[in-house]
Amino acid sequence: MKRSIFDKIISFLLGISWTFIVLGAFITFKLFFFMGVATALFLSILYIIFGLFIILALETMLTYKERLQESKKQTQLLQEIRDTLAE
User: Which of 8, 9, 20, 41 has its CA 20 to 30 A from that of 59?
Assistant: First the structure.
């Protein structure tokens, strides 16, 4: 099945988001380690939550696009059935 450029871009952004979460959480932890383990851990968790929110938004965009495509297919099939029954 041929994927659109939109799907490719969203997939690429999802991969980058996961990378930013992993590396960013590690860097955030190392950066704030001098303030204490609890503070560094708390800020890393906040960073991870923000990154997961971005991933959730991207996944939602993909889901809505797929739902729109399915709705278009169903509409076309229903119109064909209506035209067939009208004859």
Answer: 41
How far apart CA 53 and CA 34 sit, in angstroms, is 27
pLDDT in tens, 41-66: 999 999 999 999 999 998 998 899 88
Distance CA 78, CA 55 (A): 35
pTM score, two decimals? 0.74
Of 79, 51, 65, residue with least CA distance to 5: 65
Phi, psi of 32, deg, nearest 5: -100, 10
Helix runs in 1-87, H state only: 5-31, 37-86
CB atoms within 10 A of CB 41: 15
Tokens of 31: 């950066």
Measured CA to CA in angstroms, residue 43 lies from 16, 22, 24, 77 at distances of: 20, 13, 11, 51
Token pair of 39, please? Answer: 């503070």
